Amino acid sequence: MLFLLEDINLKLYGSPFPTAAVITGHATGSGCLFCLCCDYRVMVKNFLIGLNELRLGITFPNWIINIMSNTIGFREAELALLAGRLFKTDEALKVGLVDEDASDRDVALKKANAFFEKLETTPSLARIHTTSILRNRVLEDMQRNMNIHVESALFEMLHPTVQTQIELHLCNLKKKKD
């Protein structure tokens, strides 16, 4: 499963085709990662986005730290990752974690389509080449160290302390639903 998640992120981040995330619900953990791997992010108001794995005792691999740092800047990424911070839509917009906000799903889809329409005037080969240059370092790290990332994540997730944290987190989520 972890190999599949990392492989999806690798393909999404390295895609020669433009990508956009239309976020219509909470995007935490892997959901946030999928969004970070897209070229453009539009998020409906009143939801949360972020990477809170550190709260559970799970360490972030280099590529996640680099993508987050490239997106919102080093210091903001450092503070957010170390705190396991989840951003409300307006906060995510302010720090650059998302590019636009929207009142609802339909408006978000229109904004994502407008992003794609803007790209139609850009020569695709130049866009593909520039994107590749910008993302090359992170993509190489992802490819070169995928086995290490997955093994490390599995080791941490199976650790009794992390299992306890995950169990507490799930219990808290269940209490919030009730």
Automatic annotation (TrEMBL):
It comes from the Eukaryota. One of its GO terms (cellular component) is mitochondrion. One of its GO terms (biological process) is fatty acid beta-oxidation. This is Uncharacterized protein.
